Amino acid sequence: MAIHKNVVSIHPYFKPHEGKLDDFLAMLPQFTEKTATEAGCLYYDFTLNGDVIHCREAYIGAEGAQAHLENVGELLQQALGISDLLRIELHGPAKELDKLRPGLEALNPEWFVFQAGLERVGA
After folding, report:
1. What is the Cα–Cα distance from 52 to 14, expressed in whole angstroms?
2. Which domains does the chain have, with CATH numbers?
3. What distance in Å separates the CA atoms of residue 80 and residue 85, rounded to the nearest whole number?
4. 107 phi and psi, to 5 degrees?
5. What confidence tens digit (pLDDT) does each residue in 82-119 have?
6. CA–CA separation, 23 vs 44, rounded Å?
7. Exposure check for the chain: N or C terminus, fewer CB within 10 A?
8. Using an 8 Å Cβ cutoff, are 18 and 110 in contact?
9. Which residues in 91-107 are b (16+ Cβ under 10 Å) and which e?
10. Is residue 34 within 8 Å of residue 49, measured between CB atoms?
11. What percent of the chain shows pLDDT beyond 70?
12. Which helix (H) or strand (E) holds 85?
């Protein structure tokens, strides 16, 4: 099976400040609505573990990921005003991740370079 060699996924983990969990959760529909307009988005969802919110998201190439970050930039700044970014990971092929490295230094991401996998089309 063909492997999508240009898919980039982003995995941020947010911990809302004391008393701000409901405010953060109230922002999730806004993030989803904005992201729904992006042609390069493959999937986008939020999960909750106690008071830690994780966004599971993937894009077609660095261009799709960058377009998303620009699209939700204002909302992201609001979210970071009421939460701590515990961790952010970027996963994908080296050539795509290298395109994203400049400009993301402030977030101090962890970079995971694709090694092997498979893709099930139509599954």
Report:
1. 6
2. 7-113 (3.30.70.100)
3. 7
4. -85, -10
5. 999 999 999 999 999 999 999 899 899 999 999 988 77
6. 20
7. C
8. no
9. bbbeebbebbeeebeee
10. no
11. 94
12. strand 83-92
**pTM beyond cutoff 0.85:** yes
- Residues 1, 68, 19: CA angle, nearest 5 degrees: 115
Task: Describe the strand order of the beta sheet including 7-16 as a list of residue ranges.
Answer: 41-49, 52-60, 7-16, 83-92, 110-113
pLDDT tens column, 62-84: 999 999 999 999 999 999 999 99
* Token duo for residue 82: 């009421």
15 in Cβ contact with 84 (< 8 Å): yes
Identify the CA nearest to 97 among candidates 85, 76, 114, 118: 114
